[in-house]
Amino acid sequence: MATVPLPYDAAIDAPLDGHVATAWDSGPPVETGRFGTWVFLASEAFFFGGLLAAYFVLRGSSKAWVEPLSFGLGFTLTGLLVASSVCASISVRRLRAGARRSGSNWMLCASFLALAFLGVQAFEWRELAQEGFTPRGSLAGACFYILTGAHGLHVLAGVVWLAGSGVVLRSGAARTLHAELAALYQHFVDGIWLVLFTLLYLL
Amino acid sequence: MSTGAPRRGFLRTWIFSVDHKVIGLQYLVASATMLLFGGLLAMAIRWQLAWPWTEMPIVGQLVFGDVGRVISPAAYTALFTMHGTAMVFFAVLPLLTGAFGNYLVPLLVGAPDMAFPRLNAASFWIFLGAMGLFLAGFFVEGGAAESGWTAYPPLATLPSAAPGSGAGQTLWLLAIVVLGVSSILNSLNAVVTVVKMRAPGMTWMRLPLTVWGLLVAAALQLAALPVLTAGGVLQLSDRWIGTAFYTPAGLLVNSVAPEVAGAGGSPLLWQHLFWFYSHPAVYVMVLPAMGFVSDILSVHSRKPVFGYKPMVWAMSSIAGLGLMVWGHHMFTSGLGFEMGRAFMLSTMLIALPSAVKTFNWIATIWGGRIRLTAAMCFALGFVALFVIGGLSGLWLAATPVDVYLHDTYLVVAHFHYIVFGGTVLAVFGALHHWLPKMTGRALSETLGRWHFLGTFVGLNCVFLPMHQLGIAGMIRRTADPSVYQLYEHLAPLNRFVTWSAFALAAWQLLFVVNVLWSLRSGTRVGRNPWEATTLEWEAPSPPGHGNFDRDLVIDCGPYEYGDAAGARDFRPQARSRS
Ligand code: HEM
Ligand SMILES: [Cu+2]
Questions:
Q1: Around B490, how many Cα atoms within 13 Å sit in the side-chain half-sphere?
Q2: Going from the N-terminus, what domains does chain B have, and what CATH number goes with each?
Q3: Cβ within 8 Å of B, A 24-63
Q4: What's the pTM value of the predicted model, to 2 decimals?
Q5: Per-residue pLDDT tens for B75-92?
């Protein structure tokens, strides 16, 4: 009954020289970075899921639920974000076709549209606050600002990411993958917005 | 092996490293420190419960010098809040997923590092930031948070609710949200590493159960943790912006209506969001430990794990069911009959996969050539105490029983049997099993077995009587049981528990001595001190940068033991060294 660990034996245990293990590639045939981004976005979906669950619970149990939102502004916001997403897609297509410079331009364009989204949203928030629709005023207000605020921060991250990959593409350093992941993220943020838009502005 | 790589300075090697092993060790040191710290808080809690409002010797002067050396009711509340939080969020979870997760996952799947090494380092530094925020709570006006590790509103959301509901609570919340970000990055890394970086031939059904445990735990984290983060964001908003997500209409705090404009929110909403994460979190705290124990039992009894595939299925179904049972923490919160019944059934279902695992562990060691190493002792201890904790869980899952037992010491006994008796013992076992790999030196087996014996006895002396306290009706989170006449006869038992707790804590010094001794002068061990099969034992001890000094090809499962053909009774997973 050997109950103590075996001691060191130089003949077996000494490190071998000169070998360095390589990184293998197993699992689904996609790049590690892309797979990681999928996992990350799945987790993000649960984050918004949590916020939305809170929204449903509170809205469902509340008698007076007033959201004095302007459909026109909501529509503009949606248009900007969808356009940003489309630009990012076009950029990826251009890049795959080997057109680096035009790919970069479309990327910057996508970033700019997302930035415009944030501008319009800031404007909308100010208008609403002036009308008395504030986070402290009502639960509907609290939900509106937290949901759009959390989403807005994600858009902000998108602005930086898209612009970043647009600039790096120009310097010629980045692989297409980075741009593709930025675009993927932007589609995700866009998708979340479509859900929010439906819930807050349409229903 | 780093033979070819240039030597790096201390800072680059040990502090700002992106090597998964160094990050694992950093997590190990940080979370072991928090384990010690949380343990000390528990001693103060036990002091108060045994001798309420008496002056504390020695430490009293230091810590409570300005309040007459006694623990105030507010301080007591802060103590158990910080104890629970330190243990769950900053000790046990990071020990498993941060320390062992980082150290073992790449080694066991045959990868040179995690999939995203820099992200991995970032997750550790974010973790340290969260730890700083958490500890800062002790130093702010009003003291540390006072709403329990569960942070129920309105106690947690309204700054006027208690002294610690001010800055201390805000720091607590921030710490939890920041910690959540760190854990999500860490879990993401673990999942991607297992999926994308297994060595050739390392198929899913050849993964050691340790990897399965860590993988399933990481997946659970990815799904459930963001929900807690969302809930935390809402609570921060209630505190900072003054929204009323969790503040009901018509609430009075200390007979004053709190200053919240649009009240009408729901305190129960927090309970749902919190337990949607924190019930799965208790499985995150046990699944990796189950993995370690399966591996240790198999190696040290020289037998394959009995029913490998059922083990994998059991872990996965525990995780899946674990996402659907959070309501069992809310039986007395006004869930309603139908919901209560549904949660009762789903909770009881979890006993099935848990039992499958337990019987498989017993069948694993059955008839084995058991080597009673310290690691093995701790693994056996895990199995024994997990059974007790699991069974008391079943009592609590029965709604009518829980209505009586909820928030009594029986609940405290239940989860300490699983988390301390189970997980912490498994961690000690895992340390005895894997520290030689991490440091290249053996621990003392004699000291280790004595440490086990005292810990096992001590922990039963501490937590077994708590069942009785709970059944007698003693509520948890009370600073002074002696004010209730009906608990009077429990005072001697409470003092017994406290004496046992002191002894148990002191006994842990043996382990500290053992580790320090081993680091200085433990016998040097080779690659495979336990004659084990899995890949980490192919690498030198400790493994160099990049882990493996030869290319691996895996051609069998992880538990090929006992076929006593020839000199060896085991067959390594990697094709043998030529
Ligand atoms: C067989 C499986 C289990 C069952 C059926 C079960 C059942 C329960 C129930 C019904 C409660 C609520 C008691 C109450 O508050 O009145 C509870 C509490 C708790 N359980 Fe378990 N449990 C199981 C396994 C675990 C595991 C594996 C862990 C940890 C690793 C754990 C940790 C906890 C904790 C920490 C609490 C107390 C939470 C609090 O502070 O209120 N349980 N358990
Ligand atoms: Cu639970």
A1: 24
A2: 21-248+263-565 (1.20.210.10)
A3: 24-28, 32, 35-36, 39-40, 42-44, 46-51, 53-54, 57-58, 61-62
A4: 0.95
A5: 999 999 999 999 999 999
